[in-house]
Amino acid sequence: MEGHHHHHPQQKQQQHQQQSIGVNVDADRFPQWSIQETKEFLMIRAELDRSFMETKRNKLLWEVISTRMREKGYYRSAEQCKCKWKNLVTRYKGCETMETEAMRQQFPFYNELQAIFSARMHSILWSEGEGGATGSKKKALQLSSDEEEDMEESELDKGSVRKKKKGKTGAGIDGSTSGSNNNIKEILDDFMRQQMQMEMQWREAFEARENERRLKEMEWRQTMEALENERIMMDRRWREREEQRRMREEARAEKRDALITALLNKLRREDHM
Q1: C-alpha distances in Å from residue 145, one per residue of 62, 68, 81
Q2: Which long-range contacts (CB under 8 A, 24 or more apart) does 132-138 make?
Q3: Is-contact 116 45, C-beta < 8 A?
Q4: Is the peptide bond before 31 cis (omega within 30 degrees of 0)?
Q5: Verdict on whether the full-model pTM lies above 0.70
Q6: Is 138 exposed, middle or buried (0-12, 13-18, 19+ CB in 10 A)?
Q7: pLDDT at 55 (0 to 100)
Q8: Interatomic CA distance for residues 176 and 272, integer angstroms
Q9: Cα separations (Å) of 127 from 116, 131, 186?
Q10: Cα 161–167–173 angle (5° rounding)?
Q11: Are 96 and 90 in contact (CB under 8 A)?
């Protein structure tokens, strides 16, 4: 009946879960994110990555990102931005084993994500160098709260499967908890290895660019030296031509003076005769 609005608590919970699932699905699909919009989003997310790693309650941060996206002309809710980030991180992790060309074709935002995680790794290394990062702080720097939530959800799913297999005994629960902790540690270790690998790749790319710059600078210096040598040779040839021209002028002047002197002497002899 339309006049009654009583619902069972379980039905409300199911409806709430369905609405949440619907938001997660529609948040990223409708409307579709353009490449430029995604790049603007990643630039904003990169600026706030440090804040995401320092706080556990990041709902306000996603609201900030939504507001800054709106200032750029893109109307995305905080939930849409959060879902987009999770999808990008998932695709980024799936590209780790791909070749560079295939990776660019499959995921055009790999470099942006790599830059964010590389900056995060630099922050971790700097904190370790300063000696101010404890174990919990290191973990907070390695993973933002969103990424930790994803890992915890996946580990909880794995733990529930193991519980069903082992039964509802206390030993099964302890084994599941221990397995979850081991899996989280393995994921964190794998993440650190990936970050170190990215750091090495970044250093190799930097050294390659630096070598290329030095080669170009050397080529430029050689070109400038060749031009300078050519200019010196041209100046030298010009001076030699000028010297030859001066010598010819002096020779003509001497001949002219000799002719005039001979004519004057001849005229004097004729006057005396």
Answers
A1: 12, 21, 15
A2: none
A3: yes
A4: yes
A5: no
A6: middle
A7: 79
A8: 143
A9: 17, 6, 22
A10: 75
A11: no
Which DSSP symbol is given to 134?
-
pLDDT value for 272:
78
SS3 215: helix
Three-class DSSP labels, 71-88:
HCCCCCCHHHHHHHHHHH
Question: Given this model, what pLDDT does residue 64 score?
Answer: 93
Give the CA count within 13 Å in the CB-facing half-sphere of 15.
Answer: 6
Contact (CB, 8 A) for 56 and 80: no
Give the 3-state secondary structure of residue 107: coil
pLDDT at 20: 42
Rounded alpha-carbon distances, angstroms, from residue 223 to 157, 163, 229, 232? 65, 73, 10, 14
Q: How far is CA 220 from CA 214, 223, 224, 233, 250, in A?
A: 10, 5, 6, 20, 45
**DSSP label at residue 98:** S
Between CA 169 and CA 172 the distance in angstroms is 5
Where helices occur in the chain by DSSP H, the ranges are 9-29, 35-47, 49-54, 59-71, 78-94, 100-106, 110-130, 135-142, 145-166, 170-272
Contact present, 109 and 90 (Cβ < 8 Å): no
pLDDT along the chain (273 residues), means of 10: 44 45 45 91 92 84 94 93 93 78 77 87 74 48 57 51 50 56 80 88 92 94 94 94 94 92 88 76
What per-residue confidence (pLDDT) applies to 125? 77
